[in-house]
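Can you give me the bound-state structure? Components:
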Amino acid sequence: MPASAVKEDCFRLPQNLTVRAITIVQQEMLQFLDKTASATIELDDDCQVDISFIQLMEAARICAGTAGKHIALARPASGPTLDVLTRSGFLEGMSAEDLKFWLHQGGIQ
Amino acid sequence: MSFPDPIAVFRTEAAELLEQIEAGLLDLNVNLGDKDQVDAVFRGLHTLKGSGAMFGFDALAAFTHHCETAFDRVRKGEVPATRELVTAVLEAKDHMRALVDTPNGDHEATGEALLANLRAAVDGANSSGAGSPAKAAPGQNHFKIRFSLPQNAMANGTNPLPLLDELRELGECKIVADRSAIPSLELLAPTDLYVSWEVELLTTQPRSAIDDVFIFVMDEMQLDVVTVEPPLAARTPAKSAAPVAEALPAAAPQAVAAAPAVPPAPAAPALVDAKQKKTSENVRVPAEKLDELMDRVGELVIAQSRLSQLAGGSGDLQLRAVSEDVERLSGELRDTMMVLRMVPVTQLFGRFRRLVHDLAHETGKTIELLTEGETTEVDKSVIERLADPLVHLVRNSCDHGLETPEERRAAGKPEAGHILLSARQQAGEVIITIKDDGRGINKERVRAKAESSGLIAPNANLTDQELYQLIFQPGFSTAQTVTNLSGRGVGMDVVKRTIDALRGTINVTSHVGKGSEISLAIPLTLAIIDGLLVRVGDGRYVIPLSAVEECLELPIEEDMRSRGRSFISLRDSLVPFLRLRDLFRTGTKPDPFQKVVVISTGSERVGLVVDQIIGDHQTVIKGMSKLHHDVATFSGATILGDGDVALILDVGHLVAEGQQQEAHLRAAG
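Here's the bound-state model for the whole set.
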């Protein structure tokens, strides 16, 4: 399923978020961020994810931050996304801001 | 230039790994306490899992992981190696092959059943080992690891996650991703890898275990490993190595808060110079490329032969010098080419260990397979074509040759039957022998069966060898019962046909109650041979030089005296000879000084009477047409320097014919 905008500031990601399909996701997300000041990313609970997607989202956060835009996940990371975050060691080094973005948590408890 | 398909390369490597795993398991089955074999099997499974995951064979990686875990427990002394465990992993290994061959096939049910077997085998081993005390935990090592994979790693199919998982399996582990190199979205090359990792590992494993994790990416990655001294045995573990799936979202940040920052390295870093660590000493080349090269070398040898002939007839000394150089170079190239194609028979013998293991299980017999001369080398095309005949012969030995344990005990033999598979080189041939210490071939039963089926006349006068050769007739079986292994008379005729096609011979000896021995004499190569070029009448023929023992003169007077007897006295022994002029019906008069070329296979000798010996000749063997397939006297043809065709004599057939003639003459008195 190609990435497509569901509503004005909501960007629904496709099912396949692995290195095999990540290039097209990058292009569509760039176009989307270009058009909006505030983006909410919708992610299926059972999507296919690998590290390339986590990298992409981190890059998108940097891009949005530089442009003074806001980007957020519609729901806290769960399922395969959380699994990849955990296994890849991303959760271990997270700042409060990272935790807020990925897990919708207010800070380190 | 064509690049090999990575999946095909993986499949080739996986096949080799699976063979190694099987060999290790079979060795372990013989000696369950062999720790080296446990380690070897574990390493094979570990490598297969790792490379399978890397090439996208996820089902294979997941399935192999369970077997690897089982062997890891054996390795750590948590469970003993048992025959049940070996059998379960052997069966699992067959499943792994299916997962390699058809990764998208429906393997789930089979896989689950095999894993259930494996669990049962491990649980059984667990309970049997319950009496032995648990080993004291050895001292732990504390490593600080920093690594980054090549930037194009993901694009090339490497998934960092299984590598991180493997690190976790080594012990208590804290993994922190360093994402400082990730650029902004518009600058991101999305298939590149920007993340690197810092890992703190508390493990009982040695430093080499860390290298093993990265074995497939070692060449291009950056890996720094620091050993922290003294080991932090007393320190609170950084984090439990619990399965990832159990991690809860809320738990992760708490762990972050509790985890200490990675301190600066207190010890000197053991920097791995990865690029220097591994150097490849072998190059994998597809077999068909070698075949192509062999064809080209064959054409070169023919062209060189033509050049030699032209130069020989020319007075140009420079041309002769060049011709001699080309002859030397083409000879060396041919020899090098032959060496490239030679492979040890161990590749062939290896597969019979599993076959015998399975057949022993199937027949309820105790069978020990012994091998000899596994380093003997044979042309790869010969090896490939020998596999099927040997399978038939080994199955026959297991099923018909060897007795049941009860029968062997009753016969005063040890309960375990033995099969010896041996190889040795003899001149230009390899002799493969399958020998068993079973019941032997019952000659009376063979004769009765041959008479009843009309193969021989009643009371026909046959030598033992002729009688035994009857078992290679299509449909011939003396088995009283047909089993699912053999007994239908199908197989031995296939053996005979295949060996004939290889220009080989079969020799059978047997002693009732003591066992049988079947020897296959096969040429070392099917491509280019050294030949002796001879003239018979107006035709020229090639005799494989490896079969030539000596050449003698046969003066016409002696030829006249010997007429009707066809024997020549050679150092106090009589050797039968065949007059090729008569055999080929040349219709020409014999030369005044004929020559006898004495050829042999094994211990059998025969002389071939020719008109002239022209000299040695590098012979590129060309197959005969289908029309001439049944002409047994010739095994092929070759093209001479002047463009003429010379037929290559089939030594095995001619020796058999000479011996037959001798036997009949002796029988006639």
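A couple of observations. Residues 4 and 12 of chain A are 6 Å apart (CA to CA). The interface with chain B takes residues 19, 22-23, 25-26, 29-30, 33, 50-52, 54-56, 58-60, 62-63, 66, 76-78, 82-94, 99, 103, 105, 108-109 of chain A (CB under 8 Å).
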